[in-house]
Amino acid sequence: MLYRLTELAGELSIFNIFRYITFRTGGALITALLFVFLFGPMIIRSLRVRQGKGQPIRKDGPERHLIQKQGTPTMGGLMILSGLTFATLLWGNLRNPYVWVVLGVMLVYGAVGLYDDYLKVTKQSAAGFRGRIKIVIEAVVALIATAVIVHVGEEPLSAALAIPFFKNVLIPLGWLFIPFGAFIIVGAGNAVNLTDGLDGLAIVPVMIAAATFGFISYLVGNALFAEYLQIHFVQGTGELAVVCGALVGAGLGFLWFNAPPALIFMGDTGSLALGGTLGTIAVATKHELVLAIVGGLFVLEAVSVIVQVASFRLTGKRVFRMAPLHHHFEQKGWPESTVVVRFWIIAVVLALVGLATLKLR
Predict the structure, then answer these.
(1) Helix (H), strand (E) at residue 36
(2) Which of 108-112, 153-157, 289-293 shows the lowest mean pLDDT across its residues?
(3) How high is the pLDDT of residue 9?
(4) At what angle do helices 240-258 and 97-123 cross, to 10 degrees?
(5) Domain ranges, ordered by start, for the chain
(6) pLDDT of 105 strictly over 70
(7) Angle of helix 336-356 versus helix 203-220 axis, rounded to 10
């Protein structure tokens, strides 16, 4: 919206400032942060009244959760998504198709997560939305989003897989790139969803990944920087830095209320949407494999669940004391704060490794 002010730059040069992605990214960050700060308490009060008993706690989880977390409202993702959307619409270039693709995936995934949270709260059950239907909806949305990204991009890069650490290696996938990209988006959404199990555990790694991909988006969308770093230039993706800035700002605002002891949980409303957002940005910027590095913590959490389920079905034995992985360490006696902070440290290290792929080519 504010980007349109650049049309007046000929009459008043000060409006040229809105051409700069860095300025608008900072503006989006501050706007989303203030939005969540201002409207967060009202949203929390409303959800607490409407939900009554709050999010149901897993009966097979740590006993401490049943005592300390019982009655905490969920659907806190509404705070994040509303702040993120408002800031993006205010500061982003709304003529950029990548912005709309990312927002579309985020809002649809958020709606799926919202319905899932609604069922859990109303039925007071951890079951929620039927898994297969949920995955089918996510997959259809991801397929459409990837198809649009391929259509908007330039061939042959738009339908090829870029390999990190190698400057000229491209694997042409053709139409197979669409299901591959959809897999990345769906996988990212559900991996973040599995990570969201402790106060502040998911939102900080999400912000770290968003900040990392905001930087990557800016570089990939800038022809000069892309040429200098010998990374693939994808015209228009620099605008996604504004979306990432808004995500970081909204995440910071949410963390204020989600810090231990949490006043509200993100719920599937937030975790599914934010994971899908990161996945879509990774596909758009041709850094799908880098997402597996930067978001390695989410990958570990998802793999721990897959391994646990597969092991139990095949052998009747469990590899971990409890899955996802963060609950395993809780069952080993680690305090919640220790698990959370150590996982944050892992997320920072992995983000630095992911950024190193930009130069080590």
Answers:
(1) helix 21-51
(2) 153-157
(3) 63
(4) 30
(5) 2-356
(6) yes
(7) 10
